[in-house]
Amino acid sequence: MGEEIKTAGFTPADKARFLGRLAEETRVARRLYEEERFSRDGHMVGFEIETWIVDHNYAPSSINQTVLEALNHPLVVPELSRFNLELNCAPLRLSGDALTQAHDSLTRLWATCNDVAHRLDANLVLIGTLPTIRDSDLTLANMSPLNRYYALNQEVLRQRGGEPLHVNIAGRDRLASVHQDVMLEAATTSFQIHLKTPADLAHLYYNASVAASGPILAACGNAPFLFGKALWEETRIPLFEQAVKVPGPARVSMGSNYATRSLIEIFEENMRDYDALLPMAFDDPPEAMRHLRLHNGVIWRWNRPLIGFDESSAPHLRIEHRILPAGPTFIDMMANAALYLGLARSLAMSGDGAGGLAFSDAKRNFYSAARFGLDARLEWPGEGEIAADRLLLERLIPDARAGLSDLGVAEDGFLDIIEARVRTRQTGAAWQRKALEARGGDLYGLMAAYCERQRSGAPVHQWEI
Question: Are 435 and 450 in contact (CB under 8 A)?
Answer without folding.
Answer: yes
